[in-house]
Amino acid sequence: MSRVLRELPKTYEYREVESRWQQTWKDEDVYFKEGSEKPRFVIDTPPPYPTGEFHIGNAFNWCYIDFLARYKRMKGFNVMFPQGWDCHGLPTEVKVEEIHKITKNDVDRQKFREMCRELTIGNITKMRASMRRMAFSIDWSHEYITMMPEYFGKTQLSFLRMYNAGQIYQSDHPVNFCPRCETAIAFAEVNYSDRTTKLNYFNFSGLEIATSRPELLAACVAIAVHPDDERYKDRKGQHLKVPIFGHEVPIICDEAVDPAFGSGAVMICTFGDKQDVIWWKVHKLPLRKAIDKTGHMTEIAGKYQGMDTTSCREAILSDMKAGGILLRQEPLEQRVGTCWRCKTPIEILSEHQWFVKIPHEAALKAAKEVKWYPEHMFLRMENWISQMEWDWCISRQRIFASPIPIWFCKDCGAILLPDEKDLPIDPTVDAPKKPCPKCGSTNYKPETDVLDTWMDSSISVMHVTGWDGSQKVPPLFPAQIRPQGHDIIRTWAFYTILRAVSLTGGKPWEQILVNGMVLGEDGFKMSKSRGNVTVPEEILEQYGADSLRQWAASGAATGSDIQFNWNDVVAANRFLTKMWNISRFALMQLDRAPFKDDAPVTALADRWLFTKLSETVSEVSESLESYQFDKGLKAIREFAWDVLADNYIEIVKGRLYTDSSERDGACVAIRTSLDAICRMLAPFTPYFAEEIWSFMNEGSVHQQPWVSFSYTDEEALKSGETLVQVISEIRRYKHDKGLALNAPLGNVTVYTPYAVDDAGDGSSALNCTLTWKAGMPQLTQVVSGVKFDMGIIGPKLRGKAKGFMQAIEALPKDQLTKVPKTIMVDGEEISVPEGSVLPQLSYTVAGASVDLIPVSDDLVITIDQ
């Protein structure tokens, strides 16, 4: 082991250090090595949406990924930490419209797509820079961008494979539709919010009906009642005329009706909610479309045609009041489905869309085969799969997305498919290379709908494991782990499992690591409207990447939401300062004079340090294996700060300052500990660990194997803890006596049940003559005086207090151990206030007076000054 040749600067300048190492490190050092004999560890990294801002939630998630990637490399794995970009989607379209002051229909379709691509590339460039500054050890040789042909060609290939296997179909079916985005969305993309509305009771041709959506009156197709509801038992099969609109609808019976809600009679409309869809299917009811794709009323709404739903609701209620139809209104609390992108309330519309069949059993089986961290997150997946009633709607009425590779024959309506070798294609640009297989026509029209962006990202694992279509199962499939947030379990996680099952028949990953969300300092979800957003760049500028990374590691248990707190970042920064000072002192001592690198470690303090280091290595290793990053970092901090700095170094300073061979063991212990700390910190604080390592050894700490240190010495652990406790107690004694910690103390004897040899470290650390004796001392207790509690005596005795104290002090010493209940003061017998007199005891050992520190039943310290 080479000696340290350089001295650490006095202060840790994180800006200079982080900038220097960022420029020094080489991308290829963390590339996945093709053909390596090492066990592989492929990470199915989340492809973020390239907004241009790498927000705090991204930073938190990527810290988790980088922790495990760096750890696995040190453990000898061939790690692939790829970076993808999930580019397609509405937010980019909206931003392009805003920047160029246009709508998507103002320019050519391809021109608009090019504008979206240009914005996206610029945003990706900005986010790459943030990721590099955060020291994420990303394998940039495996970067992918979903909007590029080499990626969305695979999306289209997966579409064709699943279509030909009967897993994708096109149909008229009710779908969730966002009138703001003017596109269908999947159930997984529906968020829910609470709102207060009105439940309106009105006269429906003699029957009282309650509805919160009178604007759907034109879409009414039936009235439903419960079959056991006595109020309506004779009404089944009757027809009623719909108020205002005049068409007739039947009264049907269905056990799903809640007789206690409203009037017990329910208006079925196509479609007010999911239950309407179920009734529509079960009872084979007609379809009446009252709302179009833009959220406006259709022609069947009569005079209300063209109104938005809110205006229509107000107009119909006004007309009901005028016509005496509206009976009463009550407030109603309800949960409303909204678009996850724009928060607009969704409508359920029957549209011609593309769907993926949900393989419930196969998907659940694959999800069960994946190991979940934390385990309880699997319940979210299980619940989601079990409650899914509709297939996945994958078509979108947008522009910037992967084109659906389909044409339609104009003459016979048949579907025309491209050959797989011709992918990728854009059917709005490219023509089919073959005539219609059904009628031979060459007249066609392109599919203008595009694919849901989850169709791109849900094959991320197929892409990173090497899928090119030539093999059913990619060469590196399944991946070893999927890290992601709990908010996209029902989307990205579920869709990836579905697609892996459909395309390969197996699970996509061996493990899934689920992290929580980042909350603002106020405990609420970060949002610009709340003003509680903290951006990573601000933290990086003030405290550096390693402090931000520590916050991510220590702020919450795996899977739990984490609240951002500046105090946590400040504490992380202080730890780096403390660790820098520890390292600086240690390296100065190691370089002060030569020492034997292979010197045996025999002194108690050295062996105790090794046992504590061994325990820490074991705990940190176990924590990282189970992705409990908070627990792992806490163990490192406690060892470095509490064990090494506050106890061990203070104990062995005397030996370190000598020039004798006695310092060799301490030097070996310190160097071994500092080496281990650097390796353990490397996944968490890569810049800091690399900087310290560079002053100790050649090469990079990130190219070193994980710590393998193991040391067992039960006697050293027990005796060492006793030594630490004794030194702590005597330092407290000095403090209480008003003595400096380095003040000479005389003779100190420690009595324990077993013999302890501390190699003189205790005497040196305490500046005393410290003697260890096995067994307990023969103590003689002597009353040396009394102590008065003036807080009791003053108020109770007032002017008699002085005479009272003199009378007590005049008592024979054998009476002071148990003061009498009364005493004579100036000829008057007065009561002794309870608790006012405390006997002061002193002890002697073999006739010599000593101060006594009774630490425990079997640990006693005596001090003879």
Can you offer a commentary on this structure?
This protein has 865 residues and is α+β, with helices and mostly antiparallel strands. It is built from 23 helices and 33 strands. The longest helix has 28 residues, at 629-656.
Q: Indicate the multimeric state.
A: single chain
- What is the helix fraction of residues, given as a range? 25-40%
Give me the number of helical elements: 23
| Overall average pLDDT | 92
Give me the secondary-structure category.
alpha+beta
Name the CATH superfamily assignment of the domain at 183-349. Valyl/Leucyl/Isoleucyl-tRNA synthetase, editing domain
InterPro entries: aa-tRNA-synth_I_CS, aa-tRNA-synth_Ia, Anticodon_Ia_Val, M/V/L/I-tRNA-synth_anticd-bd, Rossmann-like_a/b/a_fold, tRNAsynth_Ia_anticodon-bd, Val/Leu/Ile-tRNA-synth_edit, Valine-tRNA_ligase_type_2
Pfam family, one: tRNA-synt_1
Keywords: Aminoacyl-tRNA synthetase, ATP-binding, Cytoplasm, Ligase, Nucleotide-binding, Protein biosynthesis
Main location: cytoplasm
